Amino acid sequence: MMSEHWIPIAIFLPVVGGILIPLIGFCRARSREIYLMAVVLATSVLTTGLLVAPPADSVSVVRITNTIDVAFYVDGLGSVFGVLVAFLWPLATLYAFEYMAGERRQNAFFAYYTITYGLTLGIAFSANLITLYLFCELLTLVTLPLITHTRTKAAYVAGVKYLVYFVAGATAAFVGIILFYVNGGGLDFVPGGLAAGTAVLSPQVIGASFLLMFFGFGAKAAVFPVQDWLPSAGVAPTPVTALLHAVAVVKSGVFAIARFTYYSFGTAPLEGTPAQKIALSFAIFTITYGAIMAWKEVHFKRRLAYSTLSNLSYMIFGILLLTPAGLVAGLLHMLFHGIMKITLFFVAGAVACQSGLHYVTDLRGYGRRMPRTFAVFTAASLSLMGVAPFCGFMSKWYLAQAALAHGGRYAYLGLAAILVAAVFTAIYLLTIVIRAYFPGKSCEPAGRPDAGDPGRYMQIPLGIFALAMVLLFVFAMPVAEWIRSGVAGTFL
Fold first, then answer.
1. What gap in Å lies between CA 258 and CA 319, rounded to an integer?
2. Rounded to a whole number, what is the distance in angstroms from the first to the last CA of the chain?
3. Distances, alpha carbon 249 to alpha carbons 180, 255, 275, 456, in Å
4. Confidence of residue 492 (pLDDT cuts 50, 70, 90)
5. Is the separation of the CB atoms in 131 and 62 below 8 Å?
6. Pairwise CA distance, residues 390 & 55, whole Å
7. Given pLDDT bands bounded at 50, 70 and 90, which one contains residue 310?
8. Mind giving me the DSSP string for 198-239?
9. pTM as predicted
């Protein structure tokens, strides 16, 4: 068992490491790459150690008042998010080395990129609502320069939209936390939430504070109607959008919803309430809305962004069923979707780098020009559609089982939304695959004439992710059991 003092070291190592990048002022790309990979790998190794042998106690790093502090701990729920972050970040950093080659302001880019790693871990290991809130808002501030990195008009427009949505969400979440706290709710995360303590809150306070937090943190999870920032953020460099959509920002929103639902409120005070039904209704609508918008979208990265929007609400739907099966299914899809979606975005980035193309209508014949890249894209597409033998099949299977076991009206509506979204998912992904492999006899591929598969820094992560999607299908049951045992204490 590791000491609890290793938790802040794992969190602040990439933060400090990122801050030092512009201070050192790397002039040679090779030196910066060695430094960055050392920081990122050290962080992932420390995080893995914390997940394998979690400390028994929490650790407070800043005492704000007698009852409010910034504190961290490692539990089953945080471990699910933490393992996703620790696995994806080194591979995303490797990919970014090749993608950003030749770009300007690389020291600044990689500084913010690395700091984001630490802040995301801070969210995963938050021990109370205040810590979760502070690190979510710090994540907003640090990722904003990544959104606007290209300094184009579209980037600045996306940055303003990003900031407006998240400031509004932060305000709503903060009001919800204050309302919850002043009426007797605790700030510390406790398995079972209110059911584990002696505080008794009125149904009106519980409903109002829950919905304020749901839509406040839900802005990061792109729940309708606070979702419009997500497609716009696609103007950022692909290593940024991939992490935004796979783990850092959007999964922080989903994780926050799971955290305060089960560890601040608890299932009993929310089960069957109007607050649960309202939140479920918006999640169910977002599942279908995102899939339909992805089908209509022709820009490659924006299509994937709308797909993310839909899949995030798959997770929220499972979480809000307030059952053990629903929570496990939602977290399993959070884990598996992170790998599937970062793969799809990395393919889109590789296509843009190699060919200069950004629209799916231009990809005819690219299955032959970029065979390895589009083989991985096809595998990731089948996985996201829910086709065996890829991990997306298993997470959707668990979601369907959880909905059928619940049996309520909203569970069936959610299952119907997932089935409808699955049809649209097949359409908006397979049309790309078909264009790539069956362009037509007279088709001349668009883009640069020398376009081909990218270099090894891009191909290595894509190959590892393709293998991971198959392995996670094979070992989905042990992964689900690991999640179930980690969150078992939340149901009192």
1. 6
2. 26
3. 24, 10, 24, 27
4. low
5. no
6. 34
7. very high
8. S----HHHHHHHHHHHHHHHHTTTT-TTS-THHHHGGGS-HH
9. 0.95
